[in-house]
Amino acid sequence: MASIHQVILDGRLSQLNLLINRIGCNVNEKDSYSRTPLHLAVLSDQENYGYRVARLLLQGNADINVTDSQQRTPLVYACLLNRSKLVTLLLTVSTIQHPIGPSFISTITTKQKLYYNNIGIRLDCSAIGNPSPVLTWFRMNGNDDQSWIHVQSSEFINLYDNGSLFIRPFREYFKTIHAGIFICRAENPAGSIQTIPIQVKPRKNKNKII
């Protein structure tokens, strides 16, 4: 008999229903990319088909918190692909089952960012989870990598509701504000994660501040 993954890829809903409800196959089995059948449902090119597959899998007690080789859950992929029906379905299930720890969906992936003082720089950070994680920015306190200072909005820095941090354009340079190492932390009752440290360095531009 074909594997549950192949049945989903072939679009055989009736056989999938048989595998889940009659044979009792493992709905959390992983493929070579560590993806479960629920991952495949979310990644399907046809959202309506993927939604029907996901409902069958969830009725068979599929685990929504399993991560693949990219450390992404089905919910993360649903958000990245703007699969609104699947996002709603998975969030409904997660609320009933148990909280989900944070997962980043948008972060800075480079360890160093250079910027011009007349433009400023924006550092993006967004995450999902259940309940929705709280995003907090920290700056390294001098050379002590064990000590971090909570970054707050000021006349020099803007913190936005979507999690982004923006260092505003400047004429007068303050090292403790305009340069340094930053991290973004996402926390909820189910867990806490943080980005890699990001070092930002300004360059002086003789043009006027925008």
Would you write up a description of this structure?
- The chain has 210 residues and is an alpha+beta fold.
- It has 2 domains: 95 residues, Ankyrin repeat-containing domain (Serine Threonine Protein Phosphatase 5, Tetratricopeptide repeat, Alpha Horseshoe), CATH 1.25.40; 99 residues, Immunoglobulin-like, CATH 2.60.40.
- Helices cover 30% and strands 30% of the residues.
- Strands 2, 5, 6, 9, 10 and 11 form a 6-stranded mixed beta sheet that branches. Strands 3-8-7 form a 3-stranded antiparallel beta sheet, with no helix packed on it.
- Strand 9 and strand 10 form a beta hairpin.
- The longest helix has 14 residues.
- The protein is elongated and about 70 Å long.
- It starts with a helix and ends in a 7-residue tail after the last strand.
Keywords:
alpha+beta; Serine Threonine Protein Phosphatase 5, Tetratricopeptide repeat; 30% strand; 3-stranded antiparallel beta sheet; elongated; 2 domains
